[in-house]
Amino acid sequence: MTDEQDGVGPAADGAPRSSGAGRRARPAGNGTGRRRRRKKEHGLAFKVFWRTVLGFVALGVIGIVALVIIYLKTPIPQPQADASKQVSIVYYSDGKTELGRFSTVNREDVTLDKVPKQVRYEFLAAEDRNFYKNSGVSITGTVRAAWSTLSGGQEQGGSTITQQYVKNYFLTQDRSVKRKVKEIMIALKVDRKMSKDDILQAYLNNIYFGRGAYGIQAASQAYFGVDVNKIDASQGAFLASVINAPGLYDPQYGAAAKARANARMIYVLDGMVKEGWMTPAERAKAHMPTFKTYNPNAQQVSGPNGYIVSAVRAELENKLKLKPEDIDRGGLRITTTIDKNSQKAAVAAVNKNVPSQTARLDALHTGLVAEKPDGAVVAMYGGTDASKEISAANDAQLQGGSSFKAFGLAAALQDGMTLQTQFSGASPLVLNKNSAKPTKITNDNGEQFGMLTLQRAFAVSSNTAFVRLNQALGTGKTLGAAQQLGIPPTSPGMKDPVPTDILGSAAVRVIDMANAYNTISAEGKKADTYFIKKVSSVAGDYSYNSHPNSTQAISKGIAANLINGMTGPLKDTDGTAHSTAGLFNRPAAGKTGTSSHYVSAWFTGFTPNQLTVSVGMYAGTGKKAGTVGLDKATHNSSFYGGDVPATIWRDFMEAALKGQPVAKLPKSKDVKSTTSYSPPPVTSTTQPPTTSSTTTPSSTPSSTSSSSSSSSSTSSSTLPPSPTTTTTTTTQPPSPTTPTRPSTPIPPPPATPGVQPKASEPQPTP
C-alpha cells in the first residue's frame, strides 16, 4: 500500500481521520443535519467610514468638553488701558529720544438715551441685525473669520457687535486663533452678564470712526460739528457705514471714498426698511449729509518734526498695512531712521540760510531730505509747521530744472559715450526752425561756449550742449534713465519725452530726487526710501524690523564714471556751485537746478556711498508750487540753485558728517555700452517721436519735436492714503532709430529767429 492509498490514518492535526473516502463529517448542532450559515464580513471601506465617523464624534465630544473648560476658565479681563494711555510714540534712531507721538484720542462717552433710537438701529442694520436675539456670537461669521486667519487671507468681518466690543475694549488687535477663541468666550460671558442695551452703549462709545474720533459723540462732532443727540437719520446712516473702514469711506479722501460710503449707506438704509425699523417714506428722504471741514494735521506734532511723524504714519499704513485705530491706540513704539543730530543740522542749515529780511517770507518753501545708501532717511525738513502747510520735502512737486542733466549723462554713459564725448555749447539752438513756432534754446544770459566735453558741459550746465546730447540719444532715453535711477514714472512730465526734457520740465518731489541721486552715490544700487527701523507694541502683540533691499539699477562701472563726471559743479572753477557747495572740504559730487522764471531751485549732492542730500526750494502760497518766482519772493534779481540751496546743502553736510570717515571717489573705469533701460511709456504728447539722422562735421543733430524749457509750474498736493490700487495701461512709443555718434565736433547751427524761452539752468552771475 502506498502513501496515497485510502485508509484510516491520522489527520493533519493528529486526530483520527474518518473512514471512508469522501465521507462528510456530520455537522454539530441539533442533529438535524443542516449546514451552519457562515457570518458575513464587511468590506474595508465600510470599516473606514464608520471608524472615521466614530473618530469625529469622539473629537467633537472632546472639543465640546475642551470649549466648556476654556469657557469656565476664561475670565472677563480688565479693560485695556484707555487709548490715551496707549498712544503710539515715535522715536529717533536711538530708540530712546522721543521725536513725536500720534494725536491723543478724541473721545467722550455718552449714555445710550442720548443716541436717537433710529440711529441705534442703523448700527444694528450695518453690523448685527440679530443683536437683540443672538447670544453674543455669530457662528457663521466666526467660522469665516477663523478660516481667513488660518489661511493667511484678508481679515474678515462677520463678528457680532458684542464680539467687536470685546475685541476693542478687552483684547489686543492681533489676529491669532488664540485671540479669536478668547474673544468668543468673553463675548458669551459678557452677553450673559450685561444687558443688550449696556453692550450697545459700550460699543458705541468705543468704536473707531476715523478722523481720530473714538465713540459716537466724538464722531458726531468730527464729521458734522453737532452733538450726537442732534444728528438725523442720514447722518446716523453715514456714521454706521464709515466704521466699516474709515480710510475707505471718509469723503475727505475724494470722490471714490464718497461713492463707497454712498453704497454702504444704501445697504444700511435698505436693511432698516427690511427689518421694519424705517418706513419706505423715511427711507426716500435719506441723503448724503454735508460734512464738516476736517484738518488731519490739526493735532499733529508742531514744527518741522510734524512732517516726519506724518511720513512715519503713511509708512505704517501703506507699507506695514496697519489700520488707523491700530496706530492711534495700539501702544506702538516706533524707532525711526531719523538721526537726532542730523535732523538738528537740517533745521539749523535752513534757518541760517533762508532769507529773513523779506515781506514774502511766508511764500518761501524749502525741502531737504538726507538719505543713506540703503534708503534710510536720516533727516527731513518739510517746512516750519506741518499743521499749516504741506511738506516741501515729500508732498510738493517742483520742476526739476537742470538736476535732470545727471539723468541725461547717465543715459549717455550707458549708451556708449564717455565723459570726453563732445557737443557744441553754442547758443542759441533752434528746434523746428521751419515750423510756425520754432523753439530757441539758450544758455543763461546768452552765454556762448565752444565745443564742450560732457564733463565740462555738466560742470557749467550748458543747456544747448545737453539738448544736443538728448537729440543724439533719441526720444525718451533721459526720462528712461531718470526712472531707472528712482524718479517715479507717475511724476508730472515723466511720460512726455521731448528734446528739452533733459532741462527738467518734469516735476518731482525732493524725496524722489534724493533717492535717484542716492542710486548714483551707492554705485548704481537702487534702494527704496524708508523711515521706520523697527516697531514694537506695549502689549507685545506686534513687532516689525526693517529689511532694506536694493537692486543694481546701473552697472558699478557706469556709476563710478558718472560720479566722477558729477564732481564738476563743485570742483570746476566755472562750476555752477563752485563758490558754495564747492567749499565743502570732502570729495563730493552733485548738480544744481534752476527752472525758468526761478519757480524752483535745487542742489542735490552726495559723498559717495555715504550720504545723499537734496535741497529744493520754491515760492508760492497754498498748494501750488512755483506760483511766485523765488527772485520776487526774496526781492532779489535772481535765485539760483547754486546759491541758497547749495549753501544749505554744504552747511548741513559739514554738521551731519562731522567725525565720520571721509568717503573717497570711486576710480573711473573703462566700460562698454550697457543700455538696459527702456524709455518711459508715452500716454500723451503733442510732439511726434524724435528721429535721429546721420551726422557729419558740418551737420547738427536735429529733432522734429518742439519744446520749451519754460514749462509751466506743476501744482503740489497732499496725497491721502490711497484706498485702492489703480492699474494704468500704457503703450510703448515707437523705438527710436539708433543715432550715429559724432566722431568729430558738431559745429553750432546758424542763428535763426524763433520763440525765446529762458534757459532752464541760468548761470550764477558774479
Automatic annotation (TrEMBL):
InterPro entries: Beta-lactam/transpept-like (IPR012338), Glyco_trans_51 (IPR001264), Glycosyltr_51/Transpeptidase (IPR050396), Lysozyme-like_dom_sf (IPR023346), PBP_transglycosylase (IPR036950), PCN-bd_Tpept (IPR001460). It comes from Flexivirga alba. This is Transglycosylase domain-containing protein. It catalyses: [GlcNAc-(1->4)-Mur2Ac(oyl-L-Ala-gamma-D-Glu-L-Lys-D-Ala-D-Ala)](n)-di-trans,octa-cis-undecaprenyl diphosphate + beta-D-GlcNAc-(1->4)-Mur2Ac(oyl-L-Ala-gamma-D-Glu-L-Lys-D-Ala-D-Ala)-di-trans,octa-cis-undecaprenyl diphosphate = [GlcNAc-(1->4)-Mur2Ac(oyl-L-Ala-gamma-D-Glu-L-Lys-D-Ala-D-Ala)](n+1)-di-trans,octa-cis-undecaprenyl diphosphate + di-trans,octa-cis-undecaprenyl diphosphate + H(+); Preferential cleavage: (Ac)2-L-Lys-D-Ala-|-D-Ala. Also transpeptidation of peptidyl-alanyl moieties that are N-acyl substituents of D-alanine. Residues 369-653 form the Penicillin-binding protein transpeptidase domain. GO terms for molecular function: glycosyltransferase activity. It comes from the Bacteria. Keywords: Carboxypeptidase, Glycosyltransferase, Hydrolase, Membrane, Multifunctional enzyme, Protease, Transferase, Transmembrane, Transmembrane helix. The keyword Repeat does not apply. It is an enzyme of class 2 (transferase).
